[in-house]
Amino acid sequence: MSEKFKSLVSEMDQATLEELRRSIAAELNARRPPVQLSDIHPRMSVSEKEAVTKEIARVLRGDDV
Predict the structure, then answer these.
(1) Which residue among 10, 52, 53, 61 is buried most deeply as judged by most CB within 10 Å?
(2) What distance in Å separates the CA atoms of residue 36 and residue 59, rounded to the nearest whole number?
(3) How far apart are CA 24 and CA 32, in angstroms?
(4) Residue 40 and residue 52: Cα distance in Å, rounded?
(5) Helical H runs in the chain?
């Protein structure tokens, strides 16, 4: 992380940091393709199974701001 960004973030209060976290989470979620039930099938590769498992866990944790 650049020093300029570190400095900016370190000067933010808790409320502003939380708003930044929500904004970043929303942006990441918008860029992440949603997993559809039809995407899950018996011939999935190991990496595809891991990705689906992580996505399901993320949603169950409520990380989908």
Answers:
(1) 52
(2) 13
(3) 12
(4) 8
(5) 3-10, 14-31, 46-61
DSSP one-letter code for 39:
G
How far is it, in rounded angstroms, from Cα 34 to Cα 12?
A: 32
Confidence of residue 64 (pLDDT cuts 50, 70, 90): low
pLDDT tens, residue by residue, 9-53? 899 999 999 999 999 888 887 887 777 788 888 999 999 899 888
Q: Which two tokens stand for residue 11?
A: 């000067």
CB 27, CB 19: distance < 8 Å: no
Query: Which residues, 6 or more positions from 44, have their beta carbon under 8 angstroms from its beta carbon?
Result: 52
